[in-house]
Amino acid sequence: MSGELMPKDAYLYRRGKGGNYYLNMRVPTDIVAAYGGDKVFVSLGTRNRDEARRQRNLRLAELEAHFDELRRTGKAKLSLQDKLSRQAFSRVSQTELERMAVGYFKDVFEPIAVDRPTEEIDRGELIDEWTDALSRLQDRDKEQWAESVQGAADHILMQAGWPKKFEKAGVIQRVLPTVDVDRTSDQYREFTRLVRRAAIEGSRLALCELNGQPFIPQDPLFAPGSRPTAQDQHGPRLSEALASWRSGSGARGSKRPRELTAKEAETAVRQFIELHGDLHIGEMTKRRVKEYSDALVRIPARLPTKLAKLTVPELLKQDLSVYPPRTAGTINKSFQLLSAIIEAAKKESDLEEAAGWPNYFPSVKIASDSTAEEGRLPFSSDELRMIFVNGPVHGSGKRFRGGQGEAQFWLPLLALFTGARLAELAQLRVCDIHVDRSGLAYLDIATSGGRTVKTRTSIRKLPIHSELRRLGFLEYIEGVRVASSNENRDLWPEVQSAKGRARSAAFSQWFNGYLRSKAVGIQDPRKVFHSFRHLFKDMCRDAGLSEDVHDALTGHGAGSSVGRRYGAGHSVARLATELNKVVAPVDLSHLPREPRG
Fold first, then answer.
1. Are 31 and 70 within 8 A, CB to CB?
2. CA-atom Rg of the chain in angstroms
3. What is the pLDDT of residue 123?
4. Which of 53, 265, 314, 425 could cross-link 310 (Cys pair, CB 3.0–4.6 Å)?
5. Residues 6+ apart with CB under 8 A from 12
6. DSSP character for 280?
């Protein structure tokens, strides 16, 4: 296919005469492995040159941020040799350390042991040498063996790919190869412990062969059933499988878990490890999985900070009966995530044993009662009055510290008139609110600037309801813009959560407490912030909006209709016309035109 490369427009490529423009650039060499390819080639969706330049600049900014994130977090899936050649010893896993130690045992000691001397005098000298070596290795005085073990460890690292460093040593100043490694690091210390274990077992093996005795390993790491490594038999450890699942396949366009889903998976893995240790996949027996299931059932949904810091075994010793239990859906989510991690590890492995690695998590899934009143429900009109008329935030202009500034005023209103998820609204920036030439205002729900969305269909342009404009939302945006002089400023800078939690988690927790407070008085636990989204769907139906329109507004999928998946979807103008038909079942005329910002 012919193409025209734009010499004055970097990274722009046009396919065919009059065709669409493409972003065409090479991935920096240092992150090719992490990115999953050496080239970026994506359509900019336009034939207009000026629009192509604008889209290119937006995509370049997103790509640079993604590249920086890959560099910062080290998401590349490196082989052991790559890790060692880059001197990234901290990224070498316990399994890989064991593999090198066992390889040392197999490659060095086993050949020596079977090469028996023919002369009796030679055999006697070797027995004395190996006996002396074993005695020194087993001595509690570290000086007896530290130098020899360190030398062996350095040799193994160099053989495995660590860059050599040459130093002068001895009286005659011989130039000897060594490695430039932090010998105080936990990884190196653990590696020398493993090398010492290999040397001890190797010395025992040599003595048994020399004395004509059968060799029975005392260290399970070097037992025949454990060689060449435990991983070859039982797969990666659970923590390693989690890291691999989280990073995805590495191919461009491959699916990776959302940040929030990844954090939920980390919690599930951490709880399993606290209970049973960091087991290999093949060691996760049905009994252990059942014990984990029983433990999750006993751990309540919400705990005070003091208890939340305890490990699972410590937590199970406490009296937890006063706290609300978890729902079956929440517990099953942990099982689903752990099951997905195991299946991904099995699929990724090239070992024949992988097919036999068990996955018992589907078998412990808790059957939920379809008639039970669980889940979330929409707010009623009476409850909306309790929030927006009688509630102190909207009724009397009060601001609570836990409500995180003006977020406590605007986020409920935005959810009421957009049906957007809390996570989508909480991460909005000034530059995510647009007003086109016709004066049409909309929210850009997307992934630029480090934002996340639940699904691909969640990416959308969401018109701003006329009632929000009446209440002064655009004036609030302009005030934030003028005050900060920064288009990338967060709309709600005070909306933050503890490290490792979703950004909106703290606000969600505060809002649910606000609903249950005496000032508001909504006690039904099924009524939460997400209830606005359920209510919005009902409001759309009441206003006569077609299903495809309110699915487009809320970012839901196209359902089973194949035809609805064709084309670019509804225009913002059409969505705005339809959205303004939606009427909230509560009178908001008492709210100020321009609340404080």
1. yes
2. 31
3. 75
4. 314
5. 5, 6, 21, 22, 23, 24, 44, 52, 53, 56
6. B
